[in-house]
């Protein structure tokens, strides 16, 4: 085990040190009980069967029947105490291990929440889920299923050697002769098993990723009748996982076979030499039986050492995957300032802003723009032009690769993330609905909002009438990802959520894309009342919805290609006017009513 991983995991043990100490005490108690197990058997063989006098002063003068009864009671008591201690030890160690896993998951999940969207765009959801749910068990495996059994094995091994050497030094040395070979096997097999365990984790993670994608995209899969292809893709990943898992089990089985063979070799040597010593009278039958009993137990801790090292080798792979995330530096650091809700005016400026997720993927190029407080700004342009990216720099979903974004003249990186985002309400695409009640969905950004405030926001978003018709009204539970709602209803809920936030800056990403024309008009009227006095950005593909904006920005290839009012942009023969006329013509040809 690399000390680096032990050092990283030990802080998760610190809050439970006293429980861990109690588990260590139990280790020593269990070892002491295990060392007592063979002695009642020697009393039966040497003192009951052969009639030899007992060497324990407390038992002198006892009859054969009394000694036999004592030995039998001793066997039962020792086994009972051992069972109780083992049960208590398992309960203690599992309790500590599970608490450590819970703390590690908490740290991992919390850290993931603070990593930028640029980081998450490079990851697969399934892989992240696997690291949180499965790889996090590394802390329990390495410390509680690895470290404690190793300590237990070493204590038991030391105790047995202290008893066996005085009993017969030659037999003790013979029993130890195979241990160097065992540790050579440990080193060889652990390296190989560790490599294969890494392959298993990666293969299992790919299975998680495919399942997560397929389940979240079920509508698309069924719409394009791709069920068979997706099943084939899943089975391909599942078979790859099966193959590498079987490979791991085969190596572990082979490992166990080699270890057991070496143990059998050591046992055979001891029995051969010990039997000859009994025949020559230098060793009693009872002593040989005790020695062989200890020998069987001697190899138990040795075997336990090998198994624990094997577990640790596999757990190191999981620990590496967990700490890959935990050691990823958060790209977004809190600034020292707080953006006060009462002081925020909403003056926004982009100064020479460029952005790229990766060096080969530039999305924005030298954007310069100033927005005055209270302006309503439309951002339009073809898919991939950088609209969402440009506005995503405001709440610091990511930071610019070059240049600065300011609010009220202050670089947004100077504000704490929490205070900055509290002053920005957003309607994002696709509309995100949680499997909780309607009320909790609407109040997600303002948990302290009253029911009256929630209903007012719902009315502005033209969703109140639908909600009150639900079985429990605002307390009705919504299905996973809003499965019980239409796309239009989901979109209006997210609009109401943003309206309820009542922030100084409002970002609406395609707020009416899933609405019919009549509902769109109602929602836009509600938004119009809300945007008064607030700096508002509307990302729109339906150009007819942005006629009354104070400023329209047309982005193309990550740059502001055109800007102006609706009248200014339509007066020339620029890209905006051509896009608008094309879209308007298409709507007339399709028979859609004019806006």
How would you describe what is shown here?
The structure is a single chain. The chain is of the alpha/beta class and 595 residues long. It has a domain at 3-326: Up-down Bundle (ABC transporter transmembrane region fold), CATH 1.20.1560.10. It is 61% helix and 10% strand. It contains 21 helices and ten strands. The strands form two sheets. Strands 6-7-8-3-9-10 form a six-stranded mixed β-sheet. It has a four-stranded antiparallel β-sheet with strand order 2-1-4-5, with no helix packed on it. Helix 19 (517-531) links the parallel strand 7 and strand 8. The longest helix has 54 residues, at 227-280. The radius of gyration is 36 Å and the shape is elongated.
Layout of secondary structure:
Elements (H helix, E strand, L loop, with lengths): L2 H7 L7 H20 L2 H11 L14 H51 L2 H5 L3 H9 L4 H30 L1 H8 L2 H38 L1 H6 L3 H54 L4 H42 L21 E9 L5 E10 L4 E5 L6 H6 L9 E6 L2 E2 L5 H6 L1 E4 L10 H5 L8 H10 L3 H5 L18 H15 L3 E5 L7 H15 L3 E5 L11 E6 L2 E6 L1 H6 L3 H15 L6
């Amino acid at each position: 085990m690399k000390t680096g991983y032990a050092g990283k995991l030990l802080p998760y043990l610190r809050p439970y040190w006293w429980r861990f100490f109690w588990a260590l005490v139990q280790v020593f108690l269990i070892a002491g009980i295990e060392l007592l197990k063979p002695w009642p058997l020697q009393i039966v063989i040497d003192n009951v069967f052969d009639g030899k006098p007992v060497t324990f002063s407390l038992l002198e003068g006892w009859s054969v029947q009394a000694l036999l009864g004592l030995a039998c009671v001793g066997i039962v008591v020792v086994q009972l105490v051992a069972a109780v201690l083992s049960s208590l030890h398992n309960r203690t160690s599992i309790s500590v291990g599970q608490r450590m896993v819970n703390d590690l998951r908490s740290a991992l999940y919390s850290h993931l929440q603070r990593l930028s969207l640029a980081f998450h765009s490079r990851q697969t959801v399934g892989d992240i889920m696997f690291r949180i749910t499965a790889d996090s068990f590394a802390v329990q495996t390495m410390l509680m299923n690895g470290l404690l059994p190793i300590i237990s094995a070493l204590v038991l091994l030391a105790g047995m050697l202290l008893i066996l050497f005085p009993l017969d030094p030659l037999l003790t040395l013979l029993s130890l002769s195979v241990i160097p070979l065992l540790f050579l096997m440990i080193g060889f097999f652990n390296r190989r098993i560790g490599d294969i365990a890494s392959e298993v984790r990666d293969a299992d993670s790919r299975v998680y990723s495919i399942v997560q994608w397929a389940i979240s995209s079920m509508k698309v899969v069924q719409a394009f009748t791709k069920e068979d292809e997706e099943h084939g893709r899943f089975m391909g990943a599942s078979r790859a996982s099966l193959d590498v898992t079987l490979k791991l089990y085969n190596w572990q089985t082979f490992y166990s076979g080699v270890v057991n063979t070496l143990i059998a070799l050591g046992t055979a040597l001891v029995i051969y030499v010990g039997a000859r010593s009994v025949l020559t009278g230098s060793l009693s039958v009872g002593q040989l039986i005790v020695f062989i009993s200890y020998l069987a137990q001697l190899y138990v801790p040795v075997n336990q050492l090998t198994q624990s090292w094997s577990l640790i080798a596999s757990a190191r792979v999981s620990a590496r995957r967990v700490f890959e995330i935990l050691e990823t530096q958060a790209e977004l650091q809190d600034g020292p300032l707080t953006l006060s809700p009462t002081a925020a005016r909403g003056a926004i400026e982009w100064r020479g802003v460029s952005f790229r997720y990766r060096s080969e993927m530039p999305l924005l190029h030298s954007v310069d723009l100033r927005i005055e407080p209270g302006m309503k700004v439309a951002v339009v342009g073809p898919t991939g032009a950088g609209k969402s990216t440009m506005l995503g720099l405001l709440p610091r979903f990511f930071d610019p690769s070059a240049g600065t974004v300011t609010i009220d003249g202050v670089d947004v990186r100077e504000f704490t993330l929490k205070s900055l985002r509290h002053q920005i309400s957003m309607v994002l695409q696709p509309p995100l609905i949680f499997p909780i009640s309607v009320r909790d969905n609407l109040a997600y950004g303002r948990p302290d909002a009253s029911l009256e405030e929630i209903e007012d926001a719902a009315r502005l978003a033209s969703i109140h009438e639908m909600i009150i018709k639900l079985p429990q009204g605002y307390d009705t539970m919504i299905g996973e990802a809003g499965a019980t709602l239409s796309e239009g209803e989901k979109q209006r809920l997210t609009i109401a959520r943003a309206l309820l936030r009542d922030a100084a800056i409002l970002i609406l990403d395609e707020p009416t894309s899933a609405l019919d024309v009549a509902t769109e008009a109602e929602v836009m009227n509600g938004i119009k009342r809300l945007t008064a006095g607030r700096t508002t950005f509307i990302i729109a593909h339906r150009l007819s919805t942005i006629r009354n904006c104070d400023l329209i920005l047309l982005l193309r290839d990550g740059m502001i290609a055109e800007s102006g009012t609706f009248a200014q942009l339509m007066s020339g023969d620029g890209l905006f006017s051509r896009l608008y006329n094309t879209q308007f013509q298409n709507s007339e040809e399709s028979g859609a009513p004019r806006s």
